[in-house]
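call fold(seq) -> tokens
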Amino acid sequence: MFVGREKEKEILNKALVTKEAELIAVIGRRRVGKTFLVRNTYRQVLKFELTGIQHGTRAEQN
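ret:
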């Protein structure tokens, strides 16, 4: 069960039902559940995901 983040889940779900192509960047502090939020919200429809470090070097991304 996923508790909280109702506003964020609403934003993600609105993007899911539009007829337009959407790109969503989820940014924030480390270890606050960003990846968990996206995976939990889109678990039935997620086909591709990309994660990285904002402003990170190529070596830091590996």
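Helices lie at 6-17, 34-41, 58-61.
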